């Protein structure tokens, strides 16, 4: 009886071009000792794992090995090698990054931010277009000139250094899984009403081809493999939204004097209470409102006198909205009012100073 | 290696199909003078809907050379003893390339014990007994961790006999 003597051989390999299907190979039996040497070549191939699938053009080749015992001798042989080649899937995803953008009539170069991702498995160039023809919105934004920019400085907004996109000249070429940020600039027509909505879509389409999923474009993929239109149709379009919002802020400041004698004369020792009011009108929200008021010359801030809507705020730079900043020259009172819409009503900041 | 449990797995396959098929004698004749020779041949195919002679749709295995991510392909290794002696312990090992993920429960090898490796072919066992080390911690091997499939014939492969093993894999 032959000894149990299992030898394993692995022929998994990968080439990047040139699919071939070998004929059945008839190999001479090899000696067990040599088979042991070949067993040292066992190993796991380096990783090419990819979120969007195996890279187009990859050849996957496999060979079976067989070991067996005949009259006490262990022999090893190999099968033919079969190779399958990974074709290219053409796919793309567009994602809107901007919230709804508040605009005023006749604004120019208002920017929507999108990302474009190659969700196929091969390097692909894409053509970008802006589509403002949405029939369900209240107005059509007007594509600026130029209307599409690459976010060259990664600022997330339109900056002087951002490269304009010119179709056919600098079509973005994306590796599988690669994402770029694209800025779409539109002008807002005049004569719109409060609350009107206008939509603008960024369209990205694979240059190799698009259309019905499954459409084959022979030889057009990476390393001349076939390109196959993927589930996205190799084109994607996503809309961003503008809303007309004529937010206005009504700002008032008043002062009340109380002198040491119970009167209202601005004499040394008199207290001046300042009252600053903010009121938002129109549609939308005024964001990031901050009241900063310097302490007048020849007066001294009254500690602990800051209030917002009647609620006392500490002088320190801490968790509440207000502080007294004596590091500034002149010293100043700072109150962060925040995001205010018309529905929030009147916002009142008060503080007091003493006349020196 | 735990051959008892592997054998238990093999029993489950035995009822599916009879062991190795007898081959026509003339097929083996040309190489009959070579001692201990087993010829193996691998094919890779894909299930496709084809029209038969009556115009009806049916699923057929067709040879495939081009695949897309997500495709499932079927590997078949057929073997024939074209020598003049019986072969013992016939063991067929097939690598599962990293781009491919073995489809659970798809292995089929009449008359053979099936086992797997998750460590590049060093150890073979039932999938449920395999572990892989991730960041120093052992965990049960998943289908994507399998690197090799192997089948060991339960009986001597007589001259002129043949058989096959088959499994499915999905392209990542």
Describe it.
The complex is a heterodimer of chains A (356) and B (172). Chain A has 356 residues and is mostly beta strands. In chain A, strands 16, 17, 19, 20, 21 and 24 form a six-stranded antiparallel sheet that branches. A five-stranded mixed sheet of chain A has the order 6-15-12-8-10, with no helix packed on it. In chain A, a hairpin with a 6-residue loop joins strand 22 and strand 23. Chain B has 172 residues and is mainly beta. Chain B contains two helices and twelve strands; from the N terminus they run H-E-H-E-E-E-E-E-E-E-E-E-E-E. In chain B, strands 1, 2, 3, 5, 7 and 12 form a six-stranded antiparallel sheet that branches. Chain B has a three-stranded antiparallel sheet with strand order 6-11-8. In chain B, strand 9 and strand 10 form a beta hairpin. Chain B is flat and about 60 Å long. Chains A and B meet through strand 2 and strand 3 of A and strand 2, strand 4, strand 5 and strand 6 of B.
Concise synopsis of the structure shown:
The complex is a heterodimer of chains A (356) and B (172). With 356 residues, chain A is mainly beta.
Order of helices and strands of chain B: HEHEEEEEEEEEEE
- Please state roughly what percent of the residues of chain B sit in beta strands, choosing from under 5%, 5-15%, 15-25%, 25-35%, 35-45% or over 45%: 35-45%
Order of helices and strands of chain A: EHEEEEEEEEEEEEEEEEEEEEEEE
**What is the subunit organization of this protein?**
heterodimer
Measured as a percent range, the helix fraction of chain A is: under 10%
Large-scale geometry of chain A: elongated
- Contiguous uncertain segments of 5+ residues of chain A: 1-50
Percent of residues of chain A in beta strands? over 45%
State the separation between the terminal residues of chain B, measured CA to CA. 29 Å
Report the major sheet of chain A: 6 strands, antiparallel
Helix count from the secondary structure assignment of chain B: 2
Ends distance of chain A: 114 Å
* Largest contact between chains: A-B, 60 and 49 residues
Structure summary, number of beta strands of chain B: 12
Mean pLDDT of chain B: 81
Count of discrete alpha- or pi-helical segments spanning 4 or more residues of chain A: 1
């Amino acid at each position: 009886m032959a000894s149990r003597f299992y030898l394993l051989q692995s022929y998994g390999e990968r080439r990047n071009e040139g699919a071939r299907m070998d004929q059945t190979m008839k190999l001479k039996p090899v000696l067990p000792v040599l088979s042991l040497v070949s067993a040292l070549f066992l190993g796991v191939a380096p990783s090419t794992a990819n979120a969007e699938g195996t890279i187009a053009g990859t050849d996957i080749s496999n060979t079976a090995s067989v070991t067996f015992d005949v009259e006490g001798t262990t022999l090893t042989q190999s099968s033919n090698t079969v190779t399958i080649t990974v074709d290219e899937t053409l796919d793309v995803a567009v994602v809107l990054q901007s919230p709804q953008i508040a605009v005023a009539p006749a604004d120019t170069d208002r920017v929507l931010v999108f990302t474009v991702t190659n969700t196929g498995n091969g390097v692909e160039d894409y053509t970008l277009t802006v589509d403002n023809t949405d029939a369900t919105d209240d107005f059509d934004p007007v594509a600026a000139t130029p209307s599409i920019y690459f976010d060259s400085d990664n600022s997330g907004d339109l900056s002087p250094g951002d490269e304009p996109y010119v179709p056919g000249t600098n079509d973005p070429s994306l590796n599988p899984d690669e994402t770029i940020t694209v800025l779409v600039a539109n002008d807002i027509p005049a004569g719109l009403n409060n609350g009107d909505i206008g939509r603008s879509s960024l369209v990205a389409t694979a240059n190799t081809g698009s259309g019905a999923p499954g459409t084959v474009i022979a030889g057009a993929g990476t390393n001349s493999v076939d390109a196959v239109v993927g589930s996205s149709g190799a084109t994607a379009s996503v809309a961003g939204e503008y809303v007309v919002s004529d937010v206005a802020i009504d700002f008032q400041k008043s002062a009340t004097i109380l002198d040491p004698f119970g009167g209202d004369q601005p004499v040394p020792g008199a207290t001046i209470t300042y009252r600053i009011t903010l009121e938002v009108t129109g549609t939308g929200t005024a964001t990031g409102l901050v009241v900063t008021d310097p302490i007048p010359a020849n007066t001294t801030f009254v500690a602990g006198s800051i209030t917002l809507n009647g609620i006392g705020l500490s002088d320190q730079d801490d968790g509440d909205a207000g502080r007294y900043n004596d590091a500034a020259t002149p010293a100043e009172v700072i109150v962060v009012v925040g995001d205010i819409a018309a529905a929030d009503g009147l916002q009142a900041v008060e503080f007091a100073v003493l006349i020196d | 290696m735990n051959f008892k449990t592997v054998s238990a797995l093999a029993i489950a396959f035995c009822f599916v199909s009879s062991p190795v098929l007898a081959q026509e004698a003339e097929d083996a004749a040309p190489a009959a003078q070579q001692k201990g020779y087993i010829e193996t041949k691998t094919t890779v195919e894909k299930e496709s809907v084809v029209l038969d002679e009556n115009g009806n749709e049916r699923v057929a295995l067709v040879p495939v050379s081009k695949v897309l991510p997500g495709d499932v392909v079927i590997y078949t290794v057929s073997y024939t003893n074209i020598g003049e002696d019986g072969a013992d312990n016939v063991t067929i090992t097939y690598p599962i390339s990293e781009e491919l993920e073995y489809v659970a429960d798809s292995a089929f090898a009449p008359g053979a014990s099936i086992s797997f490796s998750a460590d590049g072919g060093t150890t073979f066992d039932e999938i449920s007994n395999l572990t892989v080390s991730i960041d120093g911690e052992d965990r049960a091997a998943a289908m994507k961790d399998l690197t090799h499939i192997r089948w060991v014939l339960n009986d001597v492969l007589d001259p002129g006999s043949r058989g096959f093993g088959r499994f499915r894999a999905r392209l990542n």
